Amino acid sequence: MIQSQSIAVETTLQKKAKPPQDGLGFGIHFTDHMFILDYSVEQEWHNPRIVPYQPIVLDPAAKVFHYGQTIFEGLKAYKTADGRIRLFRPRDNFARMNRSNDRMSVPELDIDTAITALERLIEVDADWVPTEPGTSLYIRPYVFATQATLGVAPSENYQFIIIMSPVGAYYPEGMNPVKIYVESDYVRAMVGGVGEAKTAGNYAAALKSQQIAKEQGYTQVLWLDGAEHKYIEEVGSMNVFFKIGGKVITPALNGSILAGITRNSVLQLLKHWGISVEERRLSIDEIYEAAEQGLLEEAFGTGTAAVISPIGEVNWGGQKLVIGEGRTGELTNKLYDTLTGIQYGTVEDPFGWTREVGAGKTESVR
Amino acid sequence: MIQSQSIAVETTLQKKAKPPQDGLGFGIHFTDHMFILDYSVEQEWHNPRIVPYQPIVLDPAAKVFHYGQTIFEGLKAYKTADGRIRLFRPRDNFARMNRSNDRMSVPELDIDTAITALERLIEVDADWVPTEPGTSLYIRPYVFATQATLGVAPSENYQFIIIMSPVGAYYPEGMNPVKIYVESDYVRAMVGGVGEAKTAGNYAAALKSQQIAKEQGYTQVLWLDGAEHKYIEEVGSMNVFFKIGGKVITPALNGSILAGITRNSVLQLLKHWGISVEERRLSIDEIYEAAEQGLLEEAFGTGTAAVISPIGEVNWGGQKLVIGEGRTGELTNKLYDTLTGIQYGTVEDPFGWTREVGAGKTESVR
């Protein structure tokens, strides 16, 4: 593990002007600094450093351009009303990054090193954590292959980088249910593939379908399984939940869908509240049948960016299904309020999910 | 279309020392120059230029690092005995790149522009085309997303780059059959996915399985289909052919396998020779049954790097199958000799596959 004091810090001589907090958007503005860690077969992970936000310089043969060995994570830091900065389940993000690394033949990262680096970076750029309601600091850790040879083989060199972006409220005008297009032809991932790894190729594979959905007036794509085009996988880059006859059902982690941290938080919250939840195979037929029987009550996506995203309409091959009269459901609202409340520190956190930056240097709060 | 004279050429002030031709390897050494073309939504493809081989400088938020929008091609230039430089089916490579681009939501490239750029680059670096038997100049065109925002959407900016690498003889000690491991758990791609696009994510997805095969003493992985783990797809990053009872069979292009240019050349050659060929679904069971009946005669992979790669042994879940007593088959040898003969100009090219660099500036030889 790399200690905080062994991270070299070079602060910028020219701080950027901060963008106005009412027009931050998502992933457009970046803070003044970034964290970099190098990997070579001989030295393993080495040279941890915080430097001014600056371009990455790579040989044109660097493997990331050709064979796509790259993995990312996404998490957020929140400012509480009394000015403290809190992270939400950061260990889970870096643990998942290591599972992705394993699938993509990328060397493991020490989780404590990653968290130490992240906290140090946040301290350096603490004035970048926005304060307006609903805003947060989006954190993007990622790793990519840098070896400059064209043989198809795992890279011998990597960089692990953390960049950070102040982001706006996801629902500046209140939470509105989205319309979802069920994709019956294109497939995002399949069992045996890399669908559960947070790797670039999964996102590139989804773009065309997303464009088609958008042209037809839909916000997101609902993916079905690759083998039978029958079972529900994810929605856009979120996990998906359906409330049917009082029970909440979400697709089980089968290897082809992402093990979302918000997904896991929702499952824990629901169990905590005594609501019946099922993680299992869920066919698109079952959704339509439940709707016919008047049992389909709510639907929502979960992810770091939106936290909870209510679904008001589904279109499967032209059959439109309006859910909850197109309005956000009661449970969907309660989950959103509770999760964001825990994140911003206005609601008690019985799960130990939040971690205050700077406060946990010696302990390992999960 | 961009004309040759509109390509800005900045030649290097310091030419690199050329590596010895008996130890070139593959994709390790690069020539003195590279070609770059930029894309923006406003200007489309613009600013064609040849510059000294140099690092690529990218914002840390560039989409290629995060969402993997990147596509590549691979082709070769060969020096004939009388000193001419020839390309093998370059239009087919750039046509395929455009099909990959379409699948990955990358803007189309003008094929004539790409060929003009490539020929101009080869002229500038003509002294890099190696001359020893079996050596060639490997050409790597690629395109990647450069927009520096983290929203999951097609990039608004790209770079198209060509780099070139002198490569050694693939079989310096003669062609030897390889041993192949049939992958029954991990999957490379599936119908509805991006398997037929030459995109980075497909290669990243294959690495783990390749490592497992290598640890067990196998050179390549034979991939089965994602839905049933039953039908043959590709071998490593090559297409695959089996000769059974006098007929040659290769998996049909179903959307999940690459439409190899060497694959297509082999099909055309076989038809030209009057040999019966079938492109269809081919199960791994059928291979084992044919072997039991004494009908499995030869097997080989096809690709730009090796051209033809004989397969001497297959291992499917522990059942080992030796093909052709582990020796290179007669037809396999004939295909290799003919294809490489056409490429190096020692065998007549009845298909119009070869294109002399500099000779075809106004015509469009396929």
From TrEMBL, chains A, B:
It is an enzyme of class 2 (transferase). GO terms for biological process: isoleucine biosynthetic process; L-leucine biosynthetic process; L-valine biosynthetic process. It catalyses: L-isoleucine + 2-oxoglutarate = (S)-3-methyl-2-oxopentanoate + L-glutamate; L-leucine + 2-oxoglutarate = 4-methyl-2-oxopentanoate + L-glutamate; L-valine + 2-oxoglutarate = 3-methyl-2-oxobutanoate + L-glutamate. SUPFAM superfamilies: D-aminoacid aminotransferase-like PLP-dependent enzymes. The modification N6-(pyridoxal phosphate)lysine is found at residue 198. Pathway: Amino-acid biosynthesis; L-isoleucine biosynthesis; L-isoleucine from 2-oxobutanoate: step 4/4; Amino-acid biosynthesis; L-leucine biosynthesis; L-leucine from 3-methyl-2-oxobutanoate: step 4/4; Amino-acid biosynthesis; L-valine biosynthesis; L-valine from pyruvate: step 4/4. GO terms for molecular function: L-isoleucine-2-oxoglutarate transaminase activity; L-leucine-2-oxoglutarate transaminase activity; L-valine-2-oxoglutarate transaminase activity. PROSITE patterns: AA_TRANSFER_CLASS_4. PANTHER family: BRANCHED-CHAIN-AMINO-ACID AMINOTRANSFERASE (PTHR11825:SF44), SUBGROUP IIII AMINOTRANSFERASE (PTHR11825). This is Branched-chain-amino-acid aminotransferase. The lineage of its organism: Bacteria, Bacillati, Bacillota, Bacilli, Bacillales.
